[in-house]
Amino acid sequence: MLQFTEIEEKSLRCQFGTSKEGKGGRGYLPYAFTENGVAMLSSVLNGDRAVEINISIMRIFTRLRSFHALESNLATELKNFKESVNGLFKVVFTRLDAFEDDLRPKLSEQRKKIGIKTES
After folding, report:
1. Exposure letters 29-51 (e unless 16+ CB within 10 A, then b)
2. For the chain, how many structural domains are there in total?
3. pLDDT digits (tens, 9 = 90+) for 37-47
4. Does the predicted model carry a pTM greater than 0.90?
5. Do 54 and 45 form a contact (C-beta atoms < 8 A)?
6. Cα(68)–Cα(47) distance, integer angstroms
7. Kind of pairing, strands 31-32 and 2-3?
């Protein structure tokens, strides 16, 4: 079990919209159990209800761990996707730049130019 710091408690209060600062609030910083703490607690408590609650809490920790793994996996995949797309765009634009000379019509330097004559 651990006790939150003031910064963590303020962050939780803002994130979950719990009680406001000032009068009527908690007079102490809240405590929370780690996953190992819940496992230890379940070995101490013997009531049927306590065992059910501890099992559900352990399942929640397992889900959170799998969500975290999924999130980090998706972040890695997204990063790889961005890098491959950027590489593909570089290749496409490089080739388009190379074709640009071929796409322009080849005109003779001897040709008669049409348009307004400008002084340069």
Report:
1. eeeeeeeeebeeebeeeeeeeee
2. 2
3. 877 777 787 78
4. no
5. yes
6. 32
7. antiparallel
